[in-house]
Amino acid sequence: MTNVTAVYDLQEPCVAIGARLRLGLNERLASSSVNVRLSCEITSIRSENGRMILSTSNCNSLHFEKVVNATGYQSQLPAALEERQPLHAEVYYQICLGLIYTDKNPSAKPISKIIMDGWFPCLMPMITDDEPAQSKYLVTHGYYTIMASYSKPDQAEAMLQSLTDEYVQSHVKTPTEEEMARFWPEFTRRFEYVGWRGVVQAKLKTRSEFRSAVTFEYDGIIYVFPGKISNVFDAYDETQALLSGNGCVEEAGIRYPSSGVLALATSELKEQLIAGEANTGNLKSRL
After folding, report:
1. Degrees (nearest 5) of the Cα angle 259, 261, 262?
2. How confident is the model at residue 216 (pLDDT cuts 50, 70, 90)?
3. pLDDT at 97
4. What's the CA gap between 105 and 156, in Å, rounded?
């Protein structure tokens, strides 16, 4: 490593994705007799006689006692939520890219390299199978792989769909690789670029760059605002609390666990940006 002040070698868990994750989830869902409906878009959600009714794209109606909206805070959001601002901070939708590489000299265990703290590169393993040698990796950068920020998810999705391989190659891949090589000169010799992926992520604009998941209930529906992948455990616990009604409080029609993220992080979420202050929420497209 070069151009760094200190290096820390830490043992940390990895997250399985892709086929390996889907297989594991399918086995668990099947063992719990959960009915998974694929290619079934929810077109509306309404409350009627104490039950939630979901209308679908194939014209069927499904009836449930409880509904959890875990769509990344991008679908079936009532206008009243924007007016009430239950999360205290401005919600924005950001286009985030990941560059995919193959390790030409894979090690027995997956590796990760994260340059902290700021707009720097990061390399993480993409564990998609049970093979002992990990060869597929994802590279992101705190500046170059963030394309733009929008107030609506459909605006961000439209911009993501407009990206081309040529643009990513010249405006994202090249400067990201230069940055990675600045700290790890071996990178360009050891890793081979194979493509890119992009997603739209909902985030909260705060001074502290708040990234935890937030779970709350409004009008009978539980909403999970996405955070880091490790927050899935907090989101699970808080969803369970809201389903059971144990240890929850209600304020202005918003119900949430009294010891949950929304309760504990209220001050942090309310802290507004100072004019001109650098923040990833202000990054715009360089198209």
Report:
1. 95
2. very high
3. 96
4. 37
